[in-house]
Design goal:
249 residues, alpha/beta, 8 helices, 45% helix, globular, binds 3-methylbut-3-enyl trihydrogen diphosphate, binds magnesium ion
């Protein structure tokens, strides 16, 4: 334990504060496989995964990340057994009940990505309460992606734009990348600098498709319930060694 704290301190010290990623996105994956290794029910993996959410949110905010986007439930995750979906929704409520005051005290603003109107009413109310309570906070924005799908988000944006064009609110000629961004759930936010996906899968699974055009990817075989602060810091240190060219030379 003592050694672990020391290792974490050393990692923190090797982070270049002037080159911090402003926005980090994480696909929290591998909860199921983590439990399979341990002959436990899948729900136990989601529960342990929630502990990692607390740990990584705290770490991100402490080192000065300004936006943290966590993929918690995708538009495709409705395909899972009802029991598992109910369990995930319960965990969301539990997380917010336990952590909300703490998040608020730490000046963290909670924001959602995705169509939360489709969530069961209990979890939806809990989320809305959290968003309302923390709306004026400004240390870090915590984007929780719930019933989120990148394609769905882009289509929703296109529909709203067509609506606004029809109403004369905007002209087609004025529609550019920056205007389009404002029709996405991440409106007003910078694109992710770094995307972390643990669990060994090398795919985006419909996360932030539009925003991720120039994001740096960091993949790892670690399952999310095993993804600790030291791995998060390591991902940031690796990110800082990359040369981002954005198409230039
Ligand atoms: C991520 O873990 C949690 C959610 C998608 C909600 P998984 O449940 O996908 O875990 P694996 O991929 O089956 O290991
Ligand atoms: C991505 O994980 C969604 C979340 C982490 C919420 P999945 O486990 O659903 O992705 P696939 O099915 O492996 O692509
Ligand atoms: Mg998965």
């Amino acid at each position: 334990m003592q050694n672990r704290r020391k290792a974490i301190e050393e990692l923190k010290n090797s982070i270049d504060k002037d080159k911090l990623p402003l926005h980090v996105a994480i696909i929290m994956d591998g909860n199921g496989r983590w439990t399979k290794q341990r002959f436990m029910p899948r729900s136990a993996g989601h529960k342990e995964g929630m502990e990692r959410v607390k740990e990584i949110v705290e770490s991100a905010s402490n080192i000065g990340v300004k936006y943290l986007s966590l993929y918690a439930f995708s538009t495709e995750n409705w395909k899972r057994p009802k029991e598992e979906i109910d369990g995930l929704m319960k965990l969301l409520v539990y997380y917010l009940r336990v952590e909300l005051n703490n998040l608020n005290k730490n000046n963290i603003k909670i924001n959602t990505l995705g169509d939360i109107s489709k969530l069961p009413v209990g979890p939806r109310r809990e989320v809305e309460k959290a968003v309302e309570l923390t709306k004026n906070n400004n240390k870090m924005v915590l984007n929780i992606a719930l019933n989120y799908g990148g394609r769905n988000e882009i289509l929703k944006g296109i529909k709203s734009i067509l609506n606004d064009i029809e109403k004369g609110k905007i002209n087609i000629e004025d529609l550019d990348e920056s205007v389009f961004s404002d029709y996405l759930y991440t409106s007003g936010q910078p694109d992710p600098d770094l995307l972390i996906r643990p669990s060994g899968e090398l795919r985006l699974s419909n996360f932030l498709l539009y925003q991720i055009a120039y994001t740096e990817f960091w993949f790892s075989n670690i399952y999310w319930p095993d993804f600790r602060e030291e791995h998060f810091l390591k991902a940031i240190i690796d990110y800082q060694k990359r040369e981002r060219r954005f198409g230039g030379i």
